[in-house]
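Notebook entry, structure prediction.
Reason for the run: the old model in the group folder had no record of what sequence produced it. Starting over properly, with the input documented here first.
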Amino acid sequence: MSAPPFALLVEEHWRDVARLARALAGPLDGDDVAQQAWAQALAAYPPAGGLRDPRAWLLVVTSRCATDVHRARARRPVPVEEVPEAPLEGADPADGELAGADPALWAAVRALPERQRTALALRYVADADHATVASALGTTPGATRRLVSDALAALRRELAVHEAAPEGAGDAGGRDEQQEGTGRGRRS
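New structure, fully documented this time:
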């Protein structure tokens, strides 16, 4: 007996969904996001299997589930015995920092606009080509290339500023000089 179309979809794309969920929601919520994405995909799956690009559709469902988790996390209160005077550094362990990864890199990734962060994750974590990312984001491949390019440029700038700043120094001085020196000229 052959497997139903959705079972084949799961078999073919479960790794992509799991990787993207973990990259967008972090190691603590990644598995929950992947499960939620599969549940939502099953509920919405067309009986005739009439999807033009099932992988892109699954990645969209997964990224939207991750967005829901981020929104819920922002609304969820964290119980504490005493309210600290200043926010604790690294207070949220579910922010997506992976073991062995550079905390400055993950801070820079979290600082990206949501659309750039999602495009970057789809392109490099889910290993989707620009056409698939464009389909997932509802844009054109050219716009997707621009989103990914802008995200990478922002990460390079932020990491260069972070590496150039001496320990304990703020990043106000180096950032302005860095941005002024990288101004792009527009073609006429």
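Summary: The chain has a mean pLDDT of 78.
The old model has been moved to the deprecated folder.
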